[in-house]
Amino acid sequence: MGTHDKTQPGPGRGPDRGAGPGLTGFFGVFRFSRRAIGLVWHTSPRLTVVLAALTLTSGLLPAAIAYVGKLIVDAVVLASAAHEAGGPLQYDEALRWVAFEGGLVIAMAAAQRGISVCQSLLRAMLGHRVNVMILEKARRMSLAQFEDAEFYDRLTRARREASSRPLSLVNRTFGLVQNGISLVSYGVLLLEFSPWALLILVVAGVPAFVAEAKFSGDAFRLFRWRSPDTRRQMYLETVLAREDYAKEVKLMGLGPRLLTQYREIFVKLFSEDRALTLRRGGWGLGLGLVSTAAFYGAYGWIAFATIAGQITLGAMTMYLLVFKQGQSAVTSSLSSVGGMYEDNLYLSNLYEFLEQPTELPGGTQTRGPKPLDGVRFEGVCFSYPGAEAPALDDVTVHLRPGQALALVGDNGSGKTTMIKLLTRLYSPSSGQITLDGLELSQWEPAALRRRVGVIFQDFARYQMLVGENIGAGDAEAWDDETRWVEAAKAGMAAPFIDAMPDGYQTQLGRWFAGGRELSGGQWQKIALSRAFMRRGADILVLDEPTASMDAEAEAQVFSHVRRLAADKITVLISHRFSTVRMADHIVVLDQGRVVEQGSHDELLAAGGRYATLFELQAAGYR
């Protein structure tokens, strides 16, 4: 699934509008029908059975109503002729058939209403089920996939259409069965008139079906081709309508330009939709005239046969109704097949997304053979997908329990990449990383991540309660208020939380009513508290989490963390050397390589890269 989709054009090209699906491609996409029906069945077996039964009933009733209509007309004609011949007025038989037809019509209306109710309920349940499947899959995707533009194209395609397509496919399948049953019953009636009438009925609907299938394929290929444009339009909506972008958009005057881009994308997408819609409508009208001509040809034939005395007036009424409804059933059946083809095309987006590989496979071990060995990077190399230069190159570092390690280097030198490898968001391209003497890939993922508490510079700011923001650090204790308080004290957030009127029940962010926004430094203390929710974590990583604080506040936080985590491995990434110098061991990275390591005093004495950076920063304070 990692290759690019073959239906997508190359750069600068439009979709291949002239390419047809071909018979192999046409019937090949129906492989998703069984899975879609199974999906609907597992969503609600009871509703699916009821829907099937009502569909069967709706398929049988139209022919029965048409036949009873014939009996009514014939009964009326016979009774009228008998009365004109001097006999008594006999209307009992005609009225009985009228009452019977009324009952059939009521049953038909009830069945149709029942189908509508079942479809409505299934639509809601199935939409929820499919969205949960998509979100559950996304939850298990690797970080590398989230950093891939093609992944977002697949996710966008899956979410936009796939939640409604399974039910649509099942409805059309049932509709095809219903129309098939009706056609069989209509065919039995028409055969009494002429086999040629049945042949005309079936053949007349084929041209419109071929055109519909062709344009369904075109619409799908257009949908896939323009996924990046659609996603960009959604992103512009977010930028224009989210509070975290609002300040810059207003102050920089970006609104008009962004809105112009939004409009330009719409014009481009609409022009493509309009061209396809006009072509689809034109061909549909032209080929639809074939069906109309066939119907009125049959109409004249039946009228002639009635005048010639070959059939009764009631039979004429029945055949006209049967042919008209039969033509509608043929058109609906072929339309259902075309719609099923289209639904299968869109379902391919859903299953293409669901069949992607998930995050890196993990092991089963929950402890290592050397409990006091700490973390070792041994000759570790790593390159991001598509990158020309490695992010890490032959990195060897040992992190010992009770040790505070600082990572120093320019932006892009590989500091955060080391943390991503340590938490196994990525795996090394070569070399190995061990924890307690056991390679990370052999650790059970949940057990490994319980050992690590991480605060990234771009930590999440959840639009939730204060307590829930802290509780997010340990999913198993998410709503444990006692743990919230303990973690907030450890993270130095308790004083300002206690000063809030609603304390830990305060809503944060502006998305929901009563929400309160925090300062950057307060948010960072919330994030630090989140890290302390993990009681079993013996590796604490601070990836520039205090960047919004001044140098003094950052030093206080790090000193506080050192006291609380004296027996743990503490990893600090910071650009402030006043804080870095407090670490026991310092590793200096440059373009992914370890160029120096040692204590602050050792590195200053060596007069290398660290000493140069330290002096440059110190000069700024003089």
Overview of this protein structure:
The protein has 622 residues and is α/β, with parallel strands linked by helices. The chain folds into 2 domains: 22-354, ABC transporter type 1, transmembrane domain (ABC transporter transmembrane region fold), CATH 1.20.1560.10; 400-423 and 449-619, Rossmann fold, CATH 3.40.50.300. Helices cover 61% and strands 9% of the residues. It contains 23 helices and 10 strands. It has helices spanning 22-28, 33-43, 45-84, 92-139, 143-146, 149-161, 165-191, 195-203, 206-225, 227-241, 243-251, 255-307, 313-354, 415-422, 445-450, 466-471, 481-490, 494-498, 520-531, 551-564, 577-580, 600-606, 609-619, and strands at residues 375-382, 392-399, 404-408, 430-435, 438-439, 452-455, 539-543, 569-573, 585-590, 593-598. The strands form 2 sheets. Strands 6-7-8-3-9-10 form a 6-stranded mixed β-sheet, with helices on both faces. Strand 4 (430-435) and strand 5 (438-439) form a beta hairpin. Helix 3 runs antiparallel to helix 13 (313-354), helix 9 (206-225) runs antiparallel to helix 12 and helix 17 (481-490) crosses helix 19 (520-531). It starts with 21 loop residues before the first helix and ends with a helix.
